[in-house]
Amino acid sequence: MMGLSPPFLLARITMTDISRSQAWLESLRPKTLPLAFAAIIVGTVLAREQGHFDPRVALLALITAGLLQILSNLANDYGDAVKGAINRIASGRCAGCRRGDYPQQMKRALIVTVVLICLFGLALLCAARQSVGDFIGFLAPGGLSIVAAITYTVGTRPYGYIGLGDISVLVFFGWLSVLGSWYLQAHNVEAAIFLPATACGLLATAVLNINNLRDIDSDRQNGKNTLAVRLGPVNARRYHACLLLGALLCLALFNLLALHSARAGCLFSPRRCW
Protein backbone atom coordinates (compact mmCIF):
# COMPACT_ATOMS: atom_id res chain seq x y z
CA MET A 1 0.00 0.00 0.00
CA MET A 2 1.11 3.53 -0.68
CA GLY A 3 1.81 5.76 2.29
CA LEU A 4 -0.06 8.91 3.15
CA SER A 5 0.65 11.87 0.95
CA PRO A 6 2.50 14.82 2.55
CA PRO A 7 -0.67 16.91 3.11
CA PHE A 8 -2.24 14.08 5.11
CA LEU A 9 0.97 13.60 7.09
CA LEU A 10 1.05 17.31 7.86
CA ALA A 11 -2.58 17.23 8.98
CA ARG A 12 -1.89 14.23 11.21
CA ILE A 13 1.12 15.89 12.81
CA THR A 14 -0.76 19.14 13.25
CA MET A 15 -3.72 17.48 14.96
CA THR A 16 -1.35 15.56 17.25
CA ASP A 17 0.45 18.76 18.21
CA ILE A 18 -2.85 20.54 18.81
CA SER A 19 -4.19 17.78 21.05
CA ARG A 20 -0.94 17.70 23.00
CA SER A 21 -0.90 21.48 23.39
CA GLN A 22 -4.52 21.42 24.48
CA ALA A 23 -3.76 18.79 27.11
CA TRP A 24 -0.93 20.88 28.55
CA LEU A 25 -3.04 24.03 28.43
CA GLU A 26 -5.79 22.32 30.40
CA SER A 27 -3.26 21.14 32.98
CA LEU A 28 -1.70 24.61 33.33
CA ARG A 29 -5.18 26.12 33.80
CA PRO A 30 -4.31 29.76 32.96
CA LYS A 31 -7.82 30.80 34.06
CA THR A 32 -6.74 30.18 37.67
CA LEU A 33 -3.86 32.68 37.51
CA PRO A 34 -6.02 35.68 38.56
CA LEU A 35 -6.60 33.83 41.83
CA ALA A 36 -2.86 33.93 42.54
CA PHE A 37 -2.45 37.50 41.27
CA ALA A 38 -5.33 38.93 43.33
CA ALA A 39 -3.66 38.62 46.73
CA ILE A 40 -0.38 40.07 45.44
CA ILE A 41 -2.25 43.00 43.91
CA VAL A 42 -4.10 43.62 47.18
CA GLY A 43 -0.85 43.69 49.18
CA THR A 44 0.79 45.92 46.57
CA VAL A 45 -2.10 48.39 46.43
CA LEU A 46 -2.12 48.66 50.22
CA ALA A 47 1.64 49.29 50.21
CA ARG A 48 1.24 51.91 47.47
CA GLU A 49 -1.41 53.73 49.49
CA GLN A 50 1.21 54.19 52.22
CA GLY A 51 3.89 55.33 49.76
CA HIS A 52 5.85 52.06 49.64
CA PHE A 53 5.22 50.89 46.06
CA ASP A 54 8.16 49.15 44.34
CA PRO A 55 7.36 48.10 40.74
CA ARG A 56 10.22 45.58 40.57
CA VAL A 57 9.09 43.82 43.73
CA ALA A 58 5.47 43.87 42.60
CA LEU A 59 6.30 42.37 39.19
CA LEU A 60 8.56 39.66 40.60
CA ALA A 61 5.96 38.82 43.26
CA LEU A 62 3.29 38.43 40.55
CA ILE A 63 5.54 36.16 38.48
CA THR A 64 6.48 34.03 41.50
CA ALA A 65 2.85 33.71 42.60
CA GLY A 66 1.80 32.78 39.08
CA LEU A 67 4.46 30.08 38.88
CA LEU A 68 3.36 28.70 42.26
CA GLN A 69 -0.21 28.52 40.97
CA ILE A 70 0.97 26.69 37.84
CA LEU A 71 3.01 24.33 40.02
CA SER A 72 -0.08 23.59 42.10
CA ASN A 73 -2.16 22.93 38.98
CA LEU A 74 0.45 20.61 37.45
CA ALA A 75 1.00 18.75 40.72
CA ASN A 76 -2.75 18.34 41.16
CA ASP A 77 -3.11 16.61 37.79
CA TYR A 78 0.08 14.61 38.30
CA GLY A 79 -1.02 13.37 41.71
CA ASP A 80 -4.47 12.38 40.47
CA ALA A 81 -2.95 10.63 37.43
CA VAL A 82 -0.50 8.63 39.54
CA LYS A 83 -3.16 7.74 42.10
CA GLY A 84 -5.59 6.78 39.37
CA ALA A 85 -8.43 9.21 39.90
CA ILE A 86 -10.19 7.47 37.04
CA ASN A 87 -13.52 9.26 37.26
CA ARG A 88 -11.90 12.67 37.23
CA ILE A 89 -9.71 11.69 34.28
CA ALA A 90 -12.58 10.18 32.31
CA SER A 91 -14.83 13.18 32.94
CA GLY A 92 -12.45 15.42 31.01
CA ARG A 93 -11.34 17.57 33.95
CA CYS A 94 -7.88 16.05 33.67
CA ALA A 95 -7.68 15.71 29.89
CA GLY A 96 -3.91 15.52 29.83
CA CYS A 97 -4.02 12.52 32.18
CA ARG A 98 -5.44 10.40 29.38
CA ARG A 99 -2.06 10.36 27.65
CA GLY A 100 -0.04 7.32 28.62
CA ASP A 101 3.25 9.23 28.86
CA TYR A 102 1.66 12.04 30.83
CA PRO A 103 3.05 11.31 34.34
CA GLN A 104 6.68 11.28 33.21
CA GLN A 105 6.30 14.44 31.15
CA MET A 106 4.50 16.08 34.05
CA LYS A 107 7.29 15.12 36.45
CA ARG A 108 9.81 16.92 34.26
CA ALA A 109 7.52 19.94 34.01
CA LEU A 110 7.22 20.05 37.80
CA ILE A 111 11.00 20.10 38.19
CA VAL A 112 11.37 22.93 35.67
CA THR A 113 8.63 24.94 37.37
CA VAL A 114 10.24 24.51 40.81
CA VAL A 115 13.58 25.75 39.41
CA LEU A 116 11.87 28.81 37.92
CA ILE A 117 10.12 29.53 41.22
CA CYS A 118 13.42 29.38 43.08
CA LEU A 119 15.11 31.73 40.60
CA PHE A 120 12.33 34.32 40.57
CA GLY A 121 11.81 33.97 44.31
CA LEU A 122 15.47 34.72 45.03
CA ALA A 123 15.34 37.65 42.58
CA LEU A 124 12.28 38.93 44.47
CA LEU A 125 14.08 38.86 47.82
CA CYS A 126 17.11 40.59 46.33
CA ALA A 127 14.96 43.30 44.70
CA ALA A 128 13.22 43.92 48.03
CA ARG A 129 16.60 44.84 49.59
CA GLN A 130 15.88 42.83 52.68
CA SER A 131 18.20 42.52 55.63
CA VAL A 132 20.07 39.24 56.00
CA GLY A 133 17.64 38.14 58.72
CA ASP A 134 14.57 38.94 56.61
CA PHE A 135 16.14 37.27 53.57
CA ILE A 136 16.70 34.05 55.50
CA GLY A 137 13.31 34.36 57.18
CA PHE A 138 11.49 34.51 53.82
CA LEU A 139 13.25 31.40 52.55
CA ALA A 140 11.20 29.26 54.95
CA PRO A 141 7.71 30.36 53.79
CA GLY A 142 8.95 30.29 50.20
CA GLY A 143 10.04 26.69 50.59
CA LEU A 144 6.81 25.80 52.36
CA SER A 145 4.83 27.29 49.47
CA ILE A 146 6.59 24.95 47.04
CA VAL A 147 6.07 21.94 49.29
CA ALA A 148 2.40 22.81 49.85
CA ALA A 149 1.77 23.22 46.12
CA ILE A 150 3.21 19.77 45.38
CA THR A 151 1.99 17.72 48.32
CA TYR A 152 -1.68 18.69 47.88
CA THR A 153 -2.16 15.52 45.81
CA VAL A 154 1.40 14.12 45.57
CA GLY A 155 3.11 11.90 48.12
CA THR A 156 2.21 9.05 50.44
CA ARG A 157 -0.21 11.19 52.50
CA PRO A 158 -1.31 14.17 50.35
CA TYR A 159 -3.15 16.66 52.54
CA GLY A 160 -5.70 17.35 49.80
CA TYR A 161 -6.97 13.80 50.28
CA ILE A 162 -7.66 14.33 54.00
CA GLY A 163 -9.56 17.62 53.84
CA LEU A 164 -6.76 20.07 54.69
CA GLY A 165 -6.67 21.88 51.37
CA ASP A 166 -8.93 24.68 52.59
CA ILE A 167 -6.57 25.62 55.42
CA SER A 168 -3.62 25.63 53.04
CA VAL A 169 -5.41 27.96 50.61
CA LEU A 170 -6.29 30.37 53.43
CA VAL A 171 -2.67 30.48 54.58
CA PHE A 172 -0.89 30.69 51.23
CA PHE A 173 -3.42 32.52 49.04
CA GLY A 174 -4.44 34.86 51.82
CA TRP A 175 -2.10 35.57 54.70
CA LEU A 176 1.24 34.76 53.10
CA SER A 177 0.53 36.38 49.71
CA VAL A 178 -0.98 39.64 50.97
CA LEU A 179 1.23 40.08 54.03
CA GLY A 180 4.32 38.98 52.10
CA SER A 181 3.79 41.39 49.19
CA TRP A 182 3.05 44.16 51.70
CA TYR A 183 6.12 43.50 53.85
CA LEU A 184 8.53 43.17 50.92
CA GLN A 185 7.61 46.71 49.87
CA ALA A 186 6.71 48.46 53.14
CA HIS A 187 9.27 46.64 55.35
CA ASN A 188 6.97 46.75 58.38
CA VAL A 189 4.03 44.86 59.85
CA GLU A 190 0.57 46.45 60.12
CA ALA A 191 -2.03 44.63 62.19
CA ALA A 192 -4.91 45.81 60.00
CA ILE A 193 -3.45 44.08 56.92
CA PHE A 194 -4.58 40.76 58.38
CA LEU A 195 -8.19 41.71 57.56
CA PRO A 196 -7.86 42.03 53.75
CA ALA A 197 -5.39 39.13 53.80
CA THR A 198 -7.98 36.95 55.51
CA ALA A 199 -10.65 38.14 53.07
CA CYS A 200 -8.49 37.12 50.10
CA GLY A 201 -7.80 33.75 51.69
CA LEU A 202 -11.49 33.09 52.37
CA LEU A 203 -12.47 34.01 48.82
CA ALA A 204 -9.75 31.74 47.40
CA THR A 205 -10.98 28.96 49.70
CA ALA A 206 -14.48 29.52 48.33
CA VAL A 207 -13.15 28.87 44.81
CA LEU A 208 -11.60 25.61 46.01
CA ASN A 209 -14.85 24.64 47.71
CA ILE A 210 -16.80 25.21 44.48
CA ASN A 211 -14.43 22.83 42.69
CA ASN A 212 -14.71 20.28 45.48
CA LEU A 213 -18.51 20.52 45.39
CA ARG A 214 -18.41 19.82 41.66
CA ASP A 215 -16.18 16.77 42.15
CA ILE A 216 -17.77 15.53 45.38
CA ASP A 217 -19.07 12.23 43.96
CA SER A 218 -15.92 11.29 42.04
CA ASP A 219 -13.68 12.37 44.92
CA ARG A 220 -15.64 10.19 47.35
CA GLN A 221 -15.33 7.18 45.04
CA ASN A 222 -11.58 7.68 44.71
CA GLY A 223 -10.92 8.16 48.43
CA LYS A 224 -10.18 11.87 48.11
CA ASN A 225 -11.80 13.09 51.33
CA THR A 226 -11.92 16.83 50.72
CA LEU A 227 -13.73 19.01 53.22
CA ALA A 228 -16.73 19.04 50.88
CA VAL A 229 -16.80 15.23 50.94
CA ARG A 230 -16.54 15.22 54.73
CA LEU A 231 -19.30 17.80 55.16
CA GLY A 232 -21.63 16.48 52.51
CA PRO A 233 -23.27 18.57 49.75
CA VAL A 234 -25.75 20.40 52.01
CA ASN A 235 -23.30 21.43 54.73
CA ALA A 236 -20.64 22.20 52.12
CA ARG A 237 -22.99 24.80 50.63
CA ARG A 238 -23.57 26.29 54.07
CA TYR A 239 -19.82 26.34 54.60
CA HIS A 240 -19.49 28.16 51.27
CA ALA A 241 -21.91 30.85 52.43
CA CYS A 242 -19.87 31.26 55.63
CA LEU A 243 -16.69 31.75 53.60
CA LEU A 244 -18.27 34.52 51.53
CA LEU A 245 -19.83 36.21 54.54
CA GLY A 246 -16.55 36.00 56.44
CA ALA A 247 -14.70 37.68 53.57
CA LEU A 248 -17.28 40.48 53.39
CA LEU A 249 -17.08 40.97 57.17
CA CYS A 250 -13.28 41.27 57.07
CA LEU A 251 -13.46 43.86 54.29
CA ALA A 252 -16.16 45.82 56.12
CA LEU A 253 -14.08 45.89 59.31
CA PHE A 254 -11.01 46.99 57.38
CA ASN A 255 -12.94 49.84 55.78
CA LEU A 256 -14.21 50.94 59.19
CA LEU A 257 -10.64 50.95 60.53
CA ALA A 258 -9.46 52.92 57.51
CA LEU A 259 -12.23 55.49 58.04
CA HIS A 260 -11.38 55.78 61.74
CA SER A 261 -7.68 56.17 60.92
CA ALA A 262 -8.38 58.89 58.35
CA ARG A 263 -10.36 60.87 60.90
CA ALA A 264 -7.64 60.37 63.51
CA GLY A 265 -4.96 61.52 61.08
CA CYS A 266 -2.84 58.38 61.27
CA LEU A 267 -2.18 55.21 59.31
CA PHE A 268 -4.91 52.59 59.08
CA SER A 269 -3.27 50.25 61.57
CA PRO A 270 -5.14 50.11 64.88
CA ARG A 271 -1.78 49.54 66.54
CA ARG A 272 -0.63 52.97 65.40
CA CYS A 273 -3.92 54.71 66.12
CA TRP A 274 -4.44 53.48 69.66
UniProtKB/TrEMBL annotation:
- UniProt topology in membrane: Multi-pass membrane protein
- Tell me which domain of life the UniProt entry assigns to the organism this sequence originates from: Bacteria
Q: Which PANTHER family match?
A: 1,4-DIHYDROXY-2-NAPHTHOATE OCTAPRENYLTRANSFERASE (PTHR13929), UBIA PRENYLTRANSFERASE DOMAIN-CONTAINING PROTEIN 1 (PTHR13929:SF0)
Membrane-traversing stretches: 109-130, 136-155, 167-185, 191-210, 239-259
**What is its pathway?**
Quinol/quinone metabolism; menaquinone biosynthesis; menaquinol from 1,4-dihydroxy-2-naphthoate: step 1/2
Give UniProt keywords alphabetically: Cell membrane, Membrane, Menaquinone biosynthesis, Transferase, Transmembrane, Transmembrane helix
* UniProt xrefs under InterPro entries: MenA, UbiA_prenyltransferase, UBIAD1
A GO-annotated cellular component: plasma membrane
**HAMAP family listed in its UniProt record:** MenA_1
> What's this protein's name?
1,4-dihydroxy-2-naphthoate octaprenyltransferase
For the biological process aspect of GO, one term held by this record is: menaquinone biosynthetic process
One short Pfam name that applies is UbiA
Q: Does the keyword DNA-binding apply?
A: no
Q: Which family does it belong to?
A: Belongs to the MenA family. Type 1 subfamily.
The species this protein belongs to is Klebsiella pneumoniae
Instruction: Please give the catalytic activity noted in the UniProt record.
Output: an all-trans-polyprenyl diphosphate + 1,4-dihydroxy-2-naphthoate + H(+) = a 2-demethylmenaquinol + CO2 + diphosphate
The function of this protein is: Conversion of 1,4-dihydroxy-2-naphthoate (DHNA) to demethylmenaquinone (DMK).
Q: A single Gene Ontology molecular function, please?
A: 1,4-dihydroxy-2-naphthoate polyprenyltransferase activity
Q: Where in the cell does this protein reside?
A: Cell membrane; Membrane
Reported EC number(s) for this entry are 2.5.1.74
Which top EC class applies here? Answer: transferase
